[in-house]
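Show me any protein, fold above all:
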Amino acid sequence: MSKILIIDDNREYAESLEIALQARSHQVMWAPDSIIGMEIIESELPDLIILDIIMSSIGEGVLLAYKLKSDPRYACIPIIMLTGITQLTGLQFNPKNKEEEILPVECYMEKSEGLVALCSQIERILARSNN
């Protein structure tokens, strides 16, 4: 059983993801923003973080990802950047573009890709980090 922290201000989405992850025997924690998320990270040390980009401010998730990856205590925690930025803004945010390759995350996904695809990525990343 892995500890997974969801940091996302959309409580309804987080709850549906929590149900899917608990069905796969994961312990799930939730934070509505990066401040509470950081408190949980410091106290619980999750095995994986699912992080939204836009919460109380644009780019809040990106800033937290950089903060975590620059801190040796948390740099090894895999991060999945999960966002609805394309649906919200209409802008295509493709981490495969040169400018965005520097995102300090293991995986970037749009929420529109669905829970099944997300759960597959989570299992793949957890399996890789457990080896």
